[in-house]
Amino acid sequence: MNLQEISVPALAYLGDCVLELCVREHLVKAGLSTSGHLNAAALQYVRASAQAEAMKRLLPHLSEEEEAYFRRGRNLGHTNVPKHATVSEYRAATGMEVLLGYLHVTGQEERIQELFALAYPMDKAEE
């Protein structure tokens, strides 16, 4: 894939999947085994408010280029905001998804894992 040919919404779409995969792998490694427990635990990572908090932890660790992709996603026009999120939370969550989509497209899987660990330092799977 050529990064210049991918739209910001498409990066967010892809990044949402990247985050979901990171979360699912993390939860399975943590020993959760039933779909009910896995789905309930996953919500603590993927809801917009959790992603917004995660981005607050990540921002000091981002390179200039990574921060630029986050901002592109955050500044994307948002017309549908979930009822359980503020506009600010939803914008930050979209920024995080664009960042993860960018990292995935550019083959930076190790950086994705590093940022995931920084974003979610507490093991929510054990909460």
- List low-pLDDT spans: none
Main sheet summary: none
Sequence of secondary-structure elements: HHHHHH
Mean pLDDT: 90
**Percentage of residues in helical conformation:** 55-70%
CATH topology: Ribonuclease iii, N-terminal Endonuclease Domain, Chain A
* Structural class by helix and strand composition: mainly alpha
**CATH architecture term:** Orthogonal Bundle
Number of helices: 6
CATH superfamily: Ribonuclease III domain
Structure summary, number of beta strands: 0
Using only CA atoms, what is the Rg?
A: 14 Å
Would you write up a description of this structure?
It is a single chain. This protein is an all-alpha fold and 127 residues long. The chain has a single domain (3-126), classed as Ribonuclease iii, N-terminal Endonuclease Domain, Chain A (Orthogonal Bundle). It contains 6 helices and no strands. The protein has helices at residues 8-29, 35-46, 48-58, 64-74, 87-105, 109-119. Helix 2 packs across helix 3, helix 3 (48-58) crosses helix 5 (87-105) and helix 4 (64-74) crosses helix 5. The chain is globular and about 40 Å long. The protein starts with 7 loop residues before the first helix and ends in an 8-residue tail after the last helix. The mean pLDDT is 90.
Notable features of this structure?
single chain, 127 residues, mainly alpha, Ribonuclease iii, N-terminal Endonuclease Domain, Chain A, 6 helices, globular
